[in-house]
Amino acid sequence: MKSEDFSGKLILAPMAGYTDLPFRLLAREYGADITISEMISAKGLYYGDKKTAALYETVPEEKPYGIQLFGSEPEILAKAAGILKLKNEDPDDPLFYDFIDFNAGCPAPKVVKNGDGSALIREPKLLAACITALVASAGVPVTVKSRKGFVRGEDHAVELARIAEDSGAAAFTLHGRTRDEYYQGHSDWNSVAEAASAVDIPVILSGDIRTREDAMRAEGLGASSLMIGRAAVGDPMLFHRIKTGETGGVSEDRIKAALRHIALTEYFNNSKYAIIEMRKHLAAYTKGLPDSAALRKKIFEVSTPEEARELFRKSL
Length: 316
Ligand SMILES: Cc1cc2nc3c(=O)[nH]c(=O)nc-3n(C[C@H](O)[C@H](O)[C@H](O)COP(=O)(O)O)c2cc1C
What we know:
By secondary structure, the protein is α/β, with parallel strands linked by helices. Helices cover 44% and strands 15% of the residues. It has 15 helices and eight strands. An eight-stranded parallel beta sheet has the order 1-8-7-6-5-4-3-2. Helix 9 links the parallel strand 7 (203-206) and strand 8 (225-228). Helix 13 packs antiparallel against helix 14. Flavin mononucleotide binds at residues 13-18, 38-39, 68, 103, 105-106, 145, 175, 206-209, 228-231. Flavin mononucleotide binds next to strand 2.
């Protein structure tokens, strides 16, 4: 992949607990061009944590696909990227991925407390060192994702984009909120636009794209690509609507997507808890369906794919 491959794309945002393989593949079927794993601890990877590998597993059809790492120790990040690189190049069982995305934006207290995620916004030198270490060891392009600042009122978007570019990143994603805003208010798209005009690498806009109209407005601001997160949960069809301008029968589409999501989960996740783990996704598909409150309640009681399918089929 090259820097320009991050331009003109619709990207599914990385979302911990949501963007597993089945959901990423579903988003692609509806038109997402690029998908990214949820955030993976570089330390967890380096120390061989067993649960970590399941978080970044993929299939060759998922292309281009990025693995997102978080951490704040350049050596550990480099080692984690090196481990992935070895897996990528394993002739017997290659791990297919095309780029590494570095998380410098997660606002969660337990992440920030360790100096990871959005804590790096306050440590520009360390941020640069982390990106540089990843770029040197990854063997694939490295992209960076951050927020515009740490405390409300701050706007370091241009500075952060420049750090990413100067450290060798292939693209930079900005969620236009500060760390302490979490998900309040609206993503500051102007801040993304300013970052985009300050650097030559593609700048990807993240935050609050919920409709085709939002996407069209955001596109006009000069960002190279758009990233969609929360609005795709329960509505991966949004990618298709943005690309084609079609509207579609909303309830039927949601049920179809839910059924396909269940099928993909059955296929790729053989844990007996798979359906329980995806209940939050299933609940999101009920939005706008007849009797959605009652349906949602029942969804939190299903424990098998059959039960889940039955509930959605009844709503058709
Ligand atoms: C439940 C949830 C989990 C998230 N996990 C991650 C993550 O693992 N890595 C990351 O870079 N951003 C993560 N984000 C942030 C999103 O990628 C995105 O930047 C943010 O939600 C704003 O975009 P949206 O309005 O389209 O959702 C997460 C967001 C949510 C809501």
